[in-house]
Every structure is written in structure tokens, then in C-alpha cells.
Design goal:
single chain, 58 residues, membrane, transmembrane, transmembrane helix
Length: 58
């Protein structure tokens, strides 16, 4: 669980909400797609940040 930080969980939650809203038409499809891409970017940034932090500490 140490590898999954709060930023990663936030990104995963954004992706899941985007998938749910895209499936059930909760909001406009373009908005849910954009929200999904933002969630993907947040997860990617979190992974890159963890990788850089792990390599700079040792």
C-alpha cells in the first residue's frame, strides 16, 4: 500500500467515475472522456513522481 499514495487513489477514482458516467450518461460524454484522461494523467504523474523519489533517495 506504500506504493499507492493518495494522488494515485484520486486518479483511479477519477477514472472510475468517468467510466461510470460515460456508461450511464450522468454527464456529457465529452466531459467524461476528458475527466478520464485527466485521471489517467494524474495516475501517470503519481507513478513518475514515486519513481523519481524512490531513485533520488537511494
Amino acid at each position: 500500500m506504500k506504493e499507492i499514495d493518495s494522488l494515485m487513489l484520486y486518479g483511479i477514482a477519477m477514472i472510475l467515475f468517468a467510466l461510470f458516467s460515460h456508461q450511464h450518461d450522468v454527464m456529457f460524454r465529452d466531459w467524461s472522456e476528458i475527466l478520464g484522461w485527466i485521471g489517467f494523467a494524474v495516475c501517470t504523474a503519481s507513478l513518475i513522481g514515486n519513481f523519481i523519489h524512490r531513485n533520488s533517495v537511494t
